[in-house]
């Protein structure tokens, strides 16, 4: 039976690349995002390539929407046994300028969103006695100026990952986190724009400080997700892998 995977924040960037990769690995994929047109386009492209996919609009920080969407995926595609918690936003500011809304929205999407999605999906994984959850952390979890909200959320996701790994292991469910460094997406393009530099210059500058001398691409992260959700990765759980083109400490 075709296994079903859910990828959040799949309209573009890392999530879109992960959805394409999991489809080519043979999963039926539910692409979730606030951007409905984006996920429907992504799902149509996967279907045109011979894969199986649906695109659904959801705010991952909204309990009712999450519950309804995961149930709909189970109805339409089958029990979801892979979940990639990738949806994310940044609202960068130095602490003294950071608003309540900057804090709440970032914690809401990354932490509450991953919690709600995982709680809804674990039901199917534990019933199937097989599952894979992959959470998107970040090198910012180690601390990054102007990102108190984001780094707290990304560090929080690492504790969340380890705890779920402990709770769900006996059901055949592994839970791991990927902490990317600089990946070329709209998110990093927006940071370049905020800093007033061209994205090309921003990427070139970042690459100088990365041992492999290039920034990451969404496919670099999709490759690691593909590994974590594979059958053979069943003895690897509760891990955080930094994918940053070099060591991070
Ligand atoms: P991106 O291009 O900004 O894509 C993020 C996607 O998440 C967008 O399509 C966005 O939709 C969606 N999203 C935001 N809030 C949502 C919500 N409440 N419910 C559902 N979907 C929502 O970002 P990316 O660079 O691919 O990043 C993907 C993940 O990797 C994030 O968790 C990010 O923190 C993490 N990460 C990225 C980097 C990097 O360098 N790019 C590094 C480390 C970690 P809308 O456009 O409609 O808002």
Q: How would you describe the overall organization of this protein?
A:
There is one protein chain. The relative contact order is 0.14. The N and C termini lie far apart (42 Å). The chain is an alpha/beta fold and 249 residues long. Helices cover 48% and strands 16% of the residues. A seven-stranded parallel β-sheet has the order 3-2-1-4-5-6-7, with helices on both faces. It has helices spanning 13-24, 36-48, 63-76, 100-128, 148-168, 186-195, 199-208, 218-228; strands at residues 4-8, 28-33, 52-57, 80-85, 131-136, 173-180, 240-243. It is globular and about 50 Å long. α4 runs parallel beside α5 (148-168). The chain folds into two domains: 4-181 and 219-241, Rossmann fold; 182-215, no CATH class. The structure holds NADP nicotinamide-adenine-dinucleotide phosphate (NAP). Pfam families: adh_short_C2. It comes from Kibdelosporangium persicum. Belongs to the short-chain dehydrogenases/reductases (SDR) family. This is Short-chain reductase protein NovJ. InterPro entries: KR_dom, NAD(P)-bd_dom_sf, Sc_DH/Rdtase_CS, SDR, SDR_fam.
Secondary-structure map:
Layout: E1 4-8, H1 13-24, E2 28-33, H2 36-48, E3 52-57, H3 63-76, E4 80-85, H4 100-128, E5 131-136, H5 148-168, E6 173-180, H6 186-195, H7 199-208, H8 218-228, E7 240-243
Parallel strand pairs: 1-2, 1-4, 2-3, 4-5, 5-6, 6-7
Helix pairs in contact: 1-8, 3-4, 4-5
The structure holds NADP nicotinamide-adenine-dinucleotide phosphate.
NADP nicotinamide-adenine-dinucleotide phosphate binds at residues 8-9, 11-15, 33-35, 58-61, 86-89, 109, 113, 136, 138, 180, 182-183, 185-188.
